[in-house]
Amino acid sequence: MKVEILKSSDGSHTLYLPDIDETYHSRHGAVQEAMHVFIQNGLLFKANDQQEIKILEIGWGTGLNSLLTYKAVKEQGLRVYYTGIEKFPVPQEVLTQLNYKDWDEDNYLTKAYATDWGKSFQLYEHFTLEKVACDVIDLDFENEFDVVYFDAFGPRAQCEMWEKEVFEMIYKATKPGGVFVTYCAKGQVRRDLQEVGFTMEGLPGPPGKREMLRGVK
């Protein structure tokens, strides 16, 4: 599938797939969106309760969310175990063209991109990463994760990722008291997440989006 590199409004790159007219991160600011949705309203929200956090990301993509998570972990003195799921890994030759080094003074992504899929690596003292190349529906976790970053392509482009069966699997994988965050705020998505058991709330969205969703198990 053809992939193009675009510069978003905050200067950070995002990837664009013209065949499905979808970007990996917001054109209105890739870093801004990731920080707002996943770091501030996911990781740091949960960090109010605990300092050791297990994260599941659905849609590891370019690794941007994991980079920004690492930076927050370093700044806040947290310990994180990060599992990133990606069915279609981005080719290495594309990843190395992204300008995320401007946000990556510790060369986190160089290490993260070099790790083998399906193996756990302690990249830094307080940050362990495992990338898994699989379909989300094949996951089998129970009460495992404190925070879930749900960053799949939108329902229009990837409707199968937003079905109740997927949300049931994610609910099962989330610990009691765990947090689910996503950029998508569609009414049907919110209702389905509520039906599988999450207590949902709408929050102000990142630039270019009115709202996002957060759920607690």
UniProtKB/TrEMBL annotation:
Pfam families listed in its UniProt record: Methyltransf_30 (PF05430)
Domain of life: Bacteria
Alphabetical list of Gene3D superfamilies matching this protein: Vaccinia Virus protein VP39 (3.40.50.150)
Transmembrane feature ranges: none
Gene Ontology MF, one: tRNA (5-methylaminomethyl-2-thiouridylate)(34)-methyltransferase activity
Alphabetical list of InterPro entries matching this protein: MnmC-like_methylTransf, SAM-dependent_MTases_sf, tRNA_MNMC2
Matching SUPFAM superfamilies: S-adenosyl-L-methionine-dependent methyltransferases
Chain ranges of the MnmC-like methyltransferase domain: 126-217
Classification via PANTHER family: MNMC-LIKE METHYLTRANSFERASE DOMAIN-CONTAINING PROTEIN, SLL0983 PROTEIN
NCBIfam families referenced in this protein's UniProt entry, alphabetically: tRNA_MNMC2
The protein's name in its UniProt record: tRNA 5-methylaminomethyl-2-thiouridine biosynthesis bifunctional protein MnmC
Species: Parvicella tangerina
Gene name, Swiss-Prot/TrEMBL: mnmC_1
